[in-house]
Amino acid sequence: MIHNPDSWLLIAAIVPLLVVGLILTPLGRDVRRAAVLTIIGNTVSLVLALWTVARRLLFHGHMNHMGRLTSGKPMLWNFLPPHLFAPHAHHLIAAGAGRPPVGGLCLGMAVDSLTLVIFLLTTVIALLSAIYAIGLVDDRRLRPGWFAWASFFVFSVYTLIVAPSVLQMCVAGMLATVGLWGLAGAAWRGTYESAVRRVVPLLILGDALFLAGICLLLVHCGAAVLLLPQVNGITPIISGLGRSLHLQNVVQVLQADGASHFMGLGWRDWAGILMVFGISGKSAQFPLHTWAVETTPAATPTGSLAAALMIAITGPYMASRLLPLLNVDVRLLAAMAAACTLCVGSLCSLASTDVKRCLMWLVIAQAGLALLFIVTGSYVPGLYEAIYLALAAASLFFSGGTAFFCTAGQFDMRFLGGLWKTLPVTAAASLLVSSSAMGLLLFGRPDLLATGFDNLRHYGSQIGQYGNLLFWLPLVACYLVLFGLARWWWLIFGGNWRGAGPAPGGESAVRLFPMILLGLGALVCGQPLLGLARLLQKSAPLQLCPPYPVSSGGDFAVQMAHRLAWSFPAALAAAGAIYFSGLVRAEKIRRLPGPNLIYRWMDGELYFYDLYCVLGRLVLSGGGKMLAAFDRWIIGWFVVSAGLAVRLVSMLLAALDWQLTSVAAPATLVSAAVAGKRPVSAPARRLFVLAILVMIAAALAGAVTLALRR
After folding, report:
1. pLDDT under 50 in the chain at which residues?
2. Domain, as residue range, for 145
3. Residue 328, phi then psi, degrees to nearest 5
4. Which helix (H) or strand (E) holds 196?
5. Of the candidates 578, 599, 621, which is a domain's last residue?
6. Which of 161, 319, 506, 601 is the most buried (most CB within 10 A)?
7. Which sign does the torsion angle of CA 449, 450, 452, 457 carry?
8. Contact by Cβ (8 Å): 475, 561
9. DSSP three-state, residue 300
10. Is residue 305 part of a domain?
């Protein structure tokens, strides 16, 4: 481990857990000291991650060619040997160049170029979020416990990123759920307790389904298949699935669904579907998407961590790693869910008037676009969109939080506006970040997103008659996302001040510093000088993402995809025209019969949460009634029958005891004659004893018969 250049990355992942221990000591009882400890821990993790990258570059001699970074030697701790689950599992992993064969359930760390990029991105966002939180320590919602939960959440995300196996990824995801529960305010009773009740169930459901999918793979394939591609590549995974499916061709393995069918789907279909539910829970995708907007009432750094680390990073990263385990049918299902999330998020953001809630819907929608690209074969464009989204989401949350803080807690955009005059730096930074959402400006990469949409069109053309909807619906939804971003910015910073009194100000360097740095990162992350596309391409499973043919430039669909990058000025002009005088024109449009119905539907967030509440109540009430019926008819009758049987046996034993003692003590006859009772005759006593013996013999015979049948 000492000679492994990646060992420093393992230490960097453990540092936040040490910070949690320090905060729980008397040293971290003060909120400012807890904030300082968190910043120091995140800084140490960032320095160690940068040192790991530098060592690997110097070791390989590729300082000017970051795209040539190769996978490092994994550090694994094996337990539960592979043959414990499947007899042939120890043959599934082939030894790499100079690596011993590994198998079983493994814990540890495996690093490649994608791991380094995502780990560095996570450390930067975590550090800047902690710096931003220092400006809010006077807020009663930020206590020392918040920084402990934040460090624990970051530790779980680090553990997920460096995970060498699906099992460790699942455990880290569960820890991330616990950390987000603490961040949202459930660790203490308060204002946000009811909101947290809406956050946790869907995340727990996603984790439970993900674990069920892992168990299904364990039963059919063995533990060695659960190793992720950065350990030994995708060849052992494909060979392991091929052995279980009795196939050898890669195309056949990708199209196979397994022999055991339930509801028309094979075991591999069900395993993939369950794992997709786990991905959907982490990235707030349909149908487990409603939990994300319930975290917005908490403090601003909570929303930034949930949006940037959980939704924008964890979900797409899990999808890119688990891609070899998903067959084509499951990928299509995941693509449909991501497209639905993109459409739902873009529509709900157009009716939301809450600063953070509207922004969270836009983040969910763009995360759906990233996942849609990844599962349809556009590996690099999908991960690029996820990286940009992580930086942009944190920056925009900080800008919205600054407006929220300066206006003394005003979260309704209908009573904001005109803050570009008093918060000019915040307004300019948020405008630039919003404008680069689809690759606008010279800093963006519109060619990557256009390539993703082009591949999506080819993917949809292979499906069938309605496959083109998988291209056009997301494309139209992206235009709506751009309008939603323009609307969000204009209602907060554009136009005139609509609140009571003078327009507030009060920009702080502590809040501007992390917002500007993240905004610059979102603007320049697509620069070819950074080599980000080459780093992402290095980790791509090329056998699973074949290149699509390049479309002609004159095609209408291609032109619409390219124009998407330059549509933000038009979206901003449309938002300014509608909301220039406040919400007067928007209210006139809303009152029309048709738009009014659509607005009510979008304002109710498509009534998904109400539907889930109804379904949850039906499930709980139905389960309660079933348990009550079971208690009444099964448990009750069993207890009553047992009581009657015990009473009957006691009566029989008492009668037998009376008969025996009456024979031994004739004085009872005298006492019975004195009492005026007629004694029982001798033949009756013999018949009574004989009946008891017959009943005992019959019970013994029945018990022996049942035992023999079993």
Report:
1. 1, 61-68, 82-102, 187-189, 667-678, 680
2. 1-74+110-164
3. -65, -35
4. helix 193-221
5. 578
6. 319
7. positive
8. yes
9. helix
10. yes
